Amino acid sequence: MSELLALGASHKTAALALRERLAVTDAAGERLLEELVEHPSISEAVVLSTCNRIEIYIVVADPVDAESIVLAMLAKRSGIRPTELVEGIYSLRNCDAARHLFRVTAGLDSMVVGEAEVQGQVKRAYELALENQTTGSLTNRLFRGALAAGKRARSETRITVGHASVASVAVDLAHETIGDLENRPVLIVGAGETAELTARALHEHGDTTMFVANRHRARAEALAERFGGQTISLEALPEQLEHADIVVTSTSSPHVLIDAELLSRVMEIRGRRPLLLIDLAVPRDIDPDCARIEGVSLCDIDGLQAQVDSHKLVRRAEARKAEGIVEEEIQTFAGWLGSLEVLPT
Q: Fewer C-beta neighbours within 10 Å, C or N terminus of the chain?
């Protein structure tokens, strides 16, 4: 008999310090998928890793044994004792696991309720598992159902209206912190989806003085061109920090890009002129010790929570409608699950 098991840690259960140690890149995700299905008791696996969560969906013969196996893998990869790790981990089975994924994909479990990015992140996680041939009939049905639920939630409700991304909330924070953003020099480090959403939100606020730095120059150039900005190399980062009023980072780098030693020198050159740093990356791009430097304001992704809370009331009614859609889709999935007669529901 097989069962669906989901193990994860999110912004609701684990602090950023733990999540950044658990986060995996696509390459690391591929290795983890291979490692999971190599175990005889795990037949299917999909790994979802975003800035706010890491979740592992597996089909297993013995969920108790499989949970111990996965926790041991995560503990080894992250260098965290299993006893520490278990405090931030949740474990769900069968329809509870499916309902959770459907809610995640619909943006109902996000820090910013209704955010659009998570639909694409779930899709990419599923596609990565397909490419690595670690899915099967159950995870295929599960993820297709989740993506359908997410699409319905966004097309049949107004859950995405307004500030529906972490990036847009970050730009709101910048506006509240330093005032009018028009023509403020902004440095965006990264050129992925979050960086693009950040650039768009800044552009909507009238900011056209943008500089984009990224490891892949072509991607940085494409993003800068779209919003009237300029590109710089990562090697020129220290120099650009001397001129920026706002820095927003969102790379997938496993290492810190801006450390306290570098920023201390920069702030001396700036004459302690105020600098706002917003770090949307997991793992973090900016050393937390930078917050101790005079003139520096640093906000990481968990620090955006207060800003996010102020927008929650706006979406509450639409979220209720979306929850109804999720339940409809779950009933369809549960009916299919029950028809298999090999999985307890």
A: N
**Residue 247 bridge partners (DSSP):** 187, 277
Q: Which two tokens stand for residue 341?
A: 């007669």
pLDDT at 340 over 50: yes
Residue 277 has pLDDT above 70, yes or no: yes
Cβ neighbors of 17 (< 8 A, separation 6 or more) are none
Looking at domain 166-300, which CATH architecture does it have?
Answer: 3-Layer(aba) Sandwich (3.40)
Position 183 confidence tier, pLDDT thresholds 50, 70, 90: confident
Instruction: Give 229's DSSP letter.
Output: -
Domain ranges of the chain: 3-156+317-340, 166-300
The DSSP code sequence of 107-157 is TTTSSSTT-SHHHHHHHHHHHHHHHTT---HHHHHHHHHHHHHHHHHHHHS
Alpha-carbon distance 103 to 232, whole Å?
39
Which of the residues are catalytic?
51
Residues 279-327: pLDDT tens digits? 999 999 999 999 999 999 999 999 887 777 666 655 677 888 999 999 9
Give the DSSP letter of residue 39: S
